[in-house]
Amino acid sequence: MTENTAASDFRCGYIAIIGRPNVGKSTLMNMLIGAKVSITSRKAQTTRHRITGIQTVPDAQFIYIDTPGFQTRHNNALNKTLNRTVTQTLQAVDIVLFVVEAGLLNDADKQVIELLPVDVTVILVINKSDKLKDKGPLMAYAQQVATLHNFAAIVPVSARLGFQLDRLQGEIRHYLPLNKPVFDEDDITDRSEKFLAAEIVREKVFRYVGDELPYTSTVVIEKFEQEGQLRRIFAAILVERSTHKAMLIGQKGARLKEISTQARLDMEKLFGGPVYLEIWVKVKSGWADNEAGLRAYGYE
Questions:
Q1: Between 295 and 63, where is the model more confident?
Q2: Who wins on pLDDT, 255 or 211?
Q3: What b/e readout covers 4-41, taking b as 16+ CB neighbours within 10 angstroms?
Q4: What does the pLDDT read at residue 206?
């Protein structure tokens, strides 16, 4: 621990990031910590796990927890698992960031508001505020949402552009408890490289296949080896039908090759070294139909 981190006014705590799907929670956390540890996609249900992102500055350590978007439709095994992750996270944090999209407030947002704890500091984060050029509608919108909960602070941001993230972090630090750091100052997540590799491949699957592929498709790392700086990673994409397999592979393997190339480049950037990546597509029918099957493939 450095002299700065040992100071008596050092603050450290856990910050949950919650909201309905596709409001930019993962992008927000990645931008706050300055590294991509939570995958992003336009497809709903991209974040399926509780992802921790860590940023340490001289006077504070911010431990962000990116949660899945709270699901209000399709009451199946996956959505029940995702929602349980959200509600459990809220019981063990110091601060909650409730993220909404500027100008939008629908029933899904209101259902998430009902989950907000009354005994924990909640900061309203209005993301994508760059879409509202006029401050008048933005202020009116903020006042509308503020009537639904007693927020400690309201901060309009643009996670994508990095707008007002310094101000948001200042508000968060103000409410963090006085604590020693939990993690080393160079840690950015508590997740293993194997887990991050699987998430990166899954992001590329959704990015290049989009709505054509069911949300239950997932990725398993079957082998992860390291020789010096070189990482050898062998991944399997699990799908439910042979038609999904053909869709992922593409004509003459072109789509799978692009997924593999882009995933490898992201891994090399995150891990700071060369990566050898092989990806297969496998049909595993019925694995996502129940909670036991979900747990077998790493869902929490």
A1: 63
A2: 255
A3: ebeeeebbbbbbbbbbbbbbbbbbbbbbbbebbbbbbb
A4: 83
H-helix segments, the chain? 25-33, 77-90, 107-115, 135-146, 165-175, 193-209, 242-249, 254-271, 291-296
Quote helix, strand, coil % in the chain, to nearest 5. Answer: 40, 25, 40
Distant-in-sequence, close-in-space partners of 1: CB < 8 Å, separation ≥ 6: 180, 181
What mean pLDDT do residues 16-27 have?
A: 89
Q: For residue 298, what pLDDT is reported?
A: 44
Q: Is residue 47 part of a domain?
A: yes
Whether residue 282 is found in the same domain as residue 167: no
Is the pLDDT confidence value at 191 over 50? yes
pTM of the shown model? 0.76
pLDDT tens, residue by residue, 32-43: 998 888 876 554
- 5 in a domain, yes or no? no
Token pair recorded at residue 38: 């939570």
CA dist., res. 189 & res. 167, Å (int) = 23
Q: From CA 268, how far away is CA 2, in angstroms rounded?
A: 29
Q: How far apart are CA 271 and CA 204, in angstroms?
A: 17
Instruction: Give the CA radius of gyration of the chain.
Output: 20
The predicted pLDDT at position 29 comes to: 92
Q: Do 153 and 260 share a domain, yes or no?
A: no
Query: Which tokens hold the place of 106?
Result: 């629908």
